[in-house]
Amino acid sequence: MSILIDFGRDTEFSFERRLRGYVGAVARAVGVGLESCTLDTGTPAAAYIALDWRLSRFPGHDLALVWDEVHGWAAALEDTTGSTVLTYLGGEVLPDPRAVVRFLAAVRADDPDAGTLDAPVLREAGDHEQLLALVPEVAPAARA
Predict the structure, then answer these.
(1) What is the pLDDT averaged over residues 68-83?
(2) Parallel, antiparallel, or unpaired for β 37-40 and 62-68?
(3) Rounded to whole angstroms, how far apart are CA atoms 47 and 120?
(4) What pLDDT, on a 0 to 100 scale, did the predictor assign at position 143?
(5) Tens of pLDDT along 96-128?
(6) pLDDT score at 66
(7) CA-CA distance, 84 to 96, in Å (whole number)?
(8) Which of these, 35, 78, 90, 127, could form a disulfide with 62 (CB 3.0-4.6 Å)?
(9) CA angle 104, 63, 46 (to 5 degrees)
(10) Burial status of residue 34 (CB atoms within 10 A of its CB: 0-12, 13-18, 19 or more)
(11) CA proximity to 69, closest of 139, 11, 133
């Protein structure tokens, strides 16, 4: 007699692993490594990618990409007091990394159509099992 016990998957472990792979893929796509990233898998889940660029119109501020599970990706300015969002990508909460690259290129080019100033509400925070289903699979070779 064989007994199969299904303990189910550990949603939070799977979520953290897949989100880390996704953020790593976005970081690589914009030209930085995981050392430039932070990840918070709490509620709301969030990520931060420090960039090696400054915008000519804000020479005293570093540029970063910030993400959270409610608003998606945004370009933000950094200074000693924290970060200030310049513009949100909008659309999908977890877009293809190439879409984030195009968004960042538009921000760097001072394109007035780069994103939206109003924070989009793309989903409610929480329910990481539902969000896990939205996180794109990252090829194992591309995982960090």
Answers:
(1) 91
(2) unpaired
(3) 17
(4) 44
(5) 999 999 999 999 999 988 999 999 999 999 888
(6) 97
(7) 24
(8) 78
(9) 80
(10) middle
(11) 133
Task: Give the dihedral of Cα atoms 66, 26, 141, 143; nearest 10 deg.
Answer: 0
Q: Which helix (H) or strand (E) holds 128?
A: helix 128-134
DSSP string for 11-70: HHHHHHHHHHHHHHHHHHHTT--GGGEEEE-SSS-EEEEE-S---TTSTTSEEEEEEETT
- Alpha-carbon span 20 to 17, nearest angstrom: 5
The widest CA-to-CA distance across the chain, in whole angstroms, is: 72
SS3 104: helix
Cα separation, 19 vs 127, in Å, equals: 14
